[in-house]
Design a protein that fits this description.
Elements lengths: L7 H6 L1 H4 L5 H10 L1 E5 L3 H13 L3 E5 L24 H12 L4 E5 L17 E4 L4 H14 L3 E7 L2 E7 L8 H4 L12 H4 L3 H19 L9 E6 L4 E6 L15
Parallel strand pairs: 1-2, 1-4, 2-3, 4-5
Antiparallel strand pairs: 5-6, 6-7, 7-8
Helix pairs in contact: 4-5, 4-9
Length: about 260
Amino acid sequence: MRSLDFSPEERERYSRNALLPGVGWEGQERWRRGRVLVVGVGGLGSAVLFYLAAAGVGGLRVVDSDRVELSNLQRQILHRTGDLGRPKVVSAQETVRALNPHCLVEGHELRLTADRMAGLLEDVQVAVDASDNFPTRFVLAEACWQVGIPLVSAAVAGFEGQLLVVDPKADSPCYRCLFPQLPPPGTVPGTGEVGILGAVAGVMGCLQAVEALRLLLGEKSELTHKLLSYDGRKARFQQVARVKQPNCPWCGVTMP
């Protein structure tokens, strides 16, 4: 695909993308036609949305029920001091549009539940879990698994982060193979208890964006059968194998 299919402004905006092997203007068109669901507009979601929009992804569907608080601004770089008290999805829409007006941002101010998933995955090629709680992660992961949409999921706390990709088409272990049960309330401390280094959320969110962009290009992720861990104190990445569990209620073969 030639760059003439893009406006002069777009050709300049995306010129560095087009130089990349395996991307070019054909890949840029894939991104322009791409539709990504991002659940969570906090520390992870901020980095994800910035870089998906900057790359030229044409459609972003954003879900979050929270409003901007002062303690968010240490890591949630989509939002500004002037956004305090405003819905995060509204702040995110304005920031992303200011960065790239070619990107259509569709905001949904709601807390994700199973009965609210209807329509959110319509026309979506990739879903990104940038949420901060297990109930939301389980709802999104199950919905993506049922309809066959790849999911890029990350979590952060303190100086550490984790990242995985679940892709049914790649015969990936599902989310419940790694987390069989929803943790009981109160057993997983939040950032308000253990803290979080904002830059770590940025690192993991950027990695989520990379995986989502590669999936939109039709490339296979290296993380469909692995869990990637990052330790910010030791500047160390590690990969741990993930395998299908035979009795998994989502993807396993139930044993007698």
